[in-house]
Amino acid sequence: MSPSPDSKTTPNALVRFARKLYHPLGFSKGYNFTLWFVFGGALLGFVLARLQYLSLTSRFCPATPANDGSTGLPSACYWVTQFPRYKVAMGLHLATSLPGALLAVFQFVPAIRHRYILYHRIAGYAAVLLMVIANAGAMMLADTAMGGDLVTQTFIGLVGLGTTATFGLALYNIRRQQLDQHRAWMLRTWFYLGFIITLRLIQALIATVLTNLPGGTTAPRPDHHAPHALMSCPQLLYVFAHNATALHRAFPVCAPANAALLHAQDGVVPVPARLGPDRAENAAALEVSFAAAGSLALALHAVGVEVYLRLTGAEEDRLRRVSWERQRARGFRNPGSAGLVRDRVGDGVPWVTREEEGPVVAEGKGGDGSSAEGVVGAEDGKRGGEDVLGMLA
Predict the structure, then answer these.
(1) Among 21, 153, 227, 282, which residue's Cβ finds the most Cβ atoms within 10 Å?
(2) Strand ranges inside the chain, DSSP E
(3) CB within 8 Å of 301: residues ≥ 6 apart
(4) Whose CA is closest to 366, among 17, 118, 15, 104?
(5) How do residues 170-211 score in pLDDT, each as one tens digit?
(6) 384 near 362, Cβ under 8 Å?
């Protein structure tokens, strides 16, 4: 029996139910709502779970460090609790990155952009400012974060300076009314910053692999040695919750007889990197795996956002035409290419608008057949499609 003509256009009960959920939020396409729900929800959950850490000395770095993952890494908290510089830096980082990320989640809800355009603009600038300050705090911590080795410092600097630069590119393009490039750079920046969640998943995986290598928790072999992290005796004493007896038993070199090493910051002890009941070894496993996990996570996010941008060329073209209209109305030279576009800064094919097609239609059909409108940028009062991958974690 052949389907009726209306069966191809009439949505089933599941689609109708889903639309009742996402249409009030301003989404016109089911896949956009799904992406926002998954990735935005992950970022929202990550932020909400860590708001408790704004209480720096009682929740994030208590006097007695926990070994269940409910607090900050004990080896890092030693620096925060003992040195004012790192306490200020960590407080600055947490107090700005968490609110900034929280604002970003709701920046991608179309209903908010449609109805509260001024809020969208103010919140956008606030989120950028907060994240730039958070980057500064992170770079202040770089020389001790996760062991503070050269690779880790370089990686933290790359992320901090890189995302600050891409925020600048996004803001420059919106000031020039180049909406397509503003969209692209904002998506890239938040996509890059979202690596911190993926990092934790990869970091746990790498630490588990290191633990199960020969020389980890298994019987050591002469040609295999477990990776080690370097920690000072005062740092280890904090990690062991100031239990000197337990410290001396695990690391005899930190015994009172070695008073010079026991109180020296520049004397270090190799700590095996493996997961288990030992606080110091747990911390070492996470420190050793941080740079590798961060590099992989950042690479995945960088590739993922470029794939998304390539797959949404129609939205880029629509925003380019909106940019042309706005730039021409405001008297910009080279309307359509007043921002940082390929044909202006490189050897891209010159962009030419097709005026005979008339102005860009503000309202159209969404991917699921529904009519929709959306805000095209922080400075755009017109309506268009939604982008949700900017908060991918």
Answers:
(1) 282
(2) 228-232, 268-272, 364-365, 371-372
(3) 191, 192, 194, 195, 198, 392
(4) 15
(5) 999 999 889 899 989 998 999 999 999 999 999 999 999 988
(6) yes
Res 48: pLDDT:
94
Helix pair angle (84-107, 117-140), 10° resolution: 150
333: its two tokens: 């030279």
- Read off φ and ψ for residue 383, nearest 5 degrees: -120, 150
**Alpha-carbon gap, residue 280 to 345, rounded angstroms:** 51
Token pair 């008339």 is found at 358
Q: Is the pLDDT of residue 294 over 80?
A: yes
Burial class (CB in 10 A: 0-12, 13-18, 19+), 200: middle
pLDDT (0 to 100) of residue 32: 74
Distance of CA 193 to the CA centre of its chain: 3
pLDDT score at 215: 54
DSSP strand pairing (268-272 vs 364-365): unpaired
